[in-house]
Structures are given as C-alpha cells and as structure tokens.
Amino acid sequence: MKTLFRIAAIIFAAISLNSCLVGKFMCNYVLVDMPDGQNIERTRHKADSLLAGSTAWYDGLKEKGILKDIEITGYGDNKIHACYVPAANPAKAEGTAIVVHGFGDNHFVFLYLVRMYRDDFNYNVLFPDLQYHGYSGGDHTTMGWYDRYDVSEWVKVAHDIFKDDFMVVHGVSMGAATTMMMSGDEQPEYVRAYVEDCGYSSVWNQLKFNLKDSFHLPPFPVLTSASIVCKNKYGFSFKEASSMDQLAKCDRPMLFIHGDADDFVPFPHLQQNYDAKVNGYKEMWVAEGAVHANSFQSHPVEYKQHVKAFLDKVKKENL
User: Where are the alpha helices (DSSP H) in the chain?
Assistant: First the structure.
C-alpha cells in the first residue's frame, strides 16, 4: 500500500510539474508571443487591404496637421498612444467615436472604421493602440481586461478635445471584447452607445476553443494551469476576464455584430454576449457569410447602414 501511495505521489508530482511548465508556456504563448502588433509597416499594408487608400488618407491628413498623435500614461504606468482626427465638417460634428483594434493589430488596421465615422457619419474619432500594440508600451497583452481601463481614459481625453455630449465606443475582435468589458464599468454620461463586432464572450471561452481547434487539447490541465500562471503573474484569470459578466452590468445601448462564418471567435459567442446584456437597449446584426473581423468587408453598405441607423435611433429616442 505504501508503495502504491509513493507511485501515485510521483505520478501526481510529474503531472503537476508538466502542467505547470505547459501552463507557463501557454500563458506566454497567448499574452506575449502574439503576432507582431508593433510592426507598423505590416499593419499599414493590412489597412490598405481592408479598405484601399487608407494609408494615403491617413498620411494626407497627418501632413496637413489635421490628424494628430497623443500619448498619456495608462494602466500600470505604461505609456499609451492614440491618434485623433476631427469630423470632416467639425462645425456640424454628430459626435465622437472611439475605435478599438483587435489582437495583434494596432491603430492603423481599422482605418476603415475611422474613415466610416469621420467621412460618412461626420464624427470626430480617437483610435488608440492598446498596450503591447503599435506605439503603446507594456510587455504583454491583457486580452481587453485591463485595456478597458485605458479605453475609459481615452474616452475622457476625447471629450476634453472635442467637447461632445454623444460618444460611441466601437471595437472589433479583442477590441470588441474590450468594449464589452468596459461597458460594465461606470462611464461618463456622454458615453451613449457601444458597438461590438465579433468579440469573445470571455478569454477562457475563447482560449478553450483555440486550444481544442489548434492543438486538439482539453482545457484541463493546460488552460487551467495557464490561467493560474496568468493570475499570479499578471493579476487576472482567464475566467475573470469575461465580457458576459461585464455586459450583465451594462445598461446603455449596444449593437452586436458577428459574421455567421466566423471560425476564430465562434459564432455562438454572439448569442452568449447578446443574452448576457439584460438591461438597456440592444440590437443584433448577423453578417451573412462573413468570416472573423470581416463583416465590413463582406457587407460594407449594410454595415454602415446598421451602425448609422443604430446610432440615429439612440440619439432620436434618447435610449
């Protein structure tokens, strides 16, 4: 019997050690060894592939001094960067939009949304680099969980610049998760609406899917161990970083967008998020046939129509 106990203890210790090592690898793989979101040239090309002429548009406004850079101190005392640009007709601006990029990208990638808000909707726009992306500091990504604090700061900065009383926060993918996560925190009255495009319901649910899809592994023990490592090293667990939990506290209008062919952030996340928001006005639009973060490119006219109609309704009916 003692021998059996010793063997069991050795096996348990070996499994625990391996799980810890794998957990450290997984945590580092997700939060540190991400695609090169700080590679500005790569993402400049990506911006043009998503909407032709975007970098020329950006460079032209910057050369004229219309589009500007700004830096502040963000969460963890890291330097964070953003760009901002006034509406095409500043005297008749409809409001201000905060556009939030996704995992491994930076402020360049979603210039198609910046252009939509500025040129089509006549909104002022501020579009930041999340930590560990673009020109912002930090040594790891937080998958939106702590980024929500930085976006909340950018909201205040944008209000100081543009003095608007109507602001919308619009995020895509991890930016959408960031948007949903911040929506559950107390925000100024001028933050009137949110748009989330293909955001995950929680970091745990997203990584659970990725682990199974890419490595054919169950969440235990790898993801469990990685989450513990993340909590000890970075202060948050994968289950704690939940869009759904934050949405349950959100009472301001939100438009949920997701492509039904999304095989990266699975389509069922849309319903999970939508159902989690139990207070306040909400809308859902399913982009037929769109893959991950491609709803605008698949249906540009409909995308603009849905976003514009949602914002106009929030304004008109004071939702």
Answer: 2-31, 40-50, 54-63, 111-115, 147-162, 174-183, 203-215, 222-234, 243-247, 268-276, 295-298, 300-316
CA distance 161 to 69: 12
Tell which residue, 82, 50, 44, 129, has the closest CA to residue 292. Answer: 50
Are the C-beta atoms of residues 121 and 311 closer than 8 Å to each other? yes
Q: What is the pLDDT of residues 242-288, one digit of tens each?
A: 999 999 999 999 999 999 999 999 999 999 999 999 999 999 999 99
Write phi, then psi, for 83 (nearest 5 degrees): -115, 155
Q: Tokens 């050795």, residue?
A: 10
| 278: nearest Cα among 255, 306, 310, 244 | 244
Which 3 state secondary structure label does DSSP give 147?
A: helix
- 203, 265 in Cβ contact below 8 A? no
Q: What is the band of 34 on the pLDDT scale with cuts at 50, 70, 90?
A: low
Q: Extract the tokens encoding 214.
A: 């890419």
Task: Tell me the CATH class for 34-202+241-316.
Answer: alpha beta
Tell me if the bond preceding 300 is cis, omega within 30° of 0: no
Summarised one tens digit per residue, pLDDT across range 170-227 is 999 999 999 999 999 999 999 999 999 999 999 999 999 988 877 667 777 888 888 9
- Coil, strand or helix at 84: strand
Phi-psi region of 143 (alpha: psi -120 to 50; beta: other; left: phi over 0): left
Q: Among 3-12, 143-152, 244-253, whose mean pLDDT is lowest?
A: 3-12
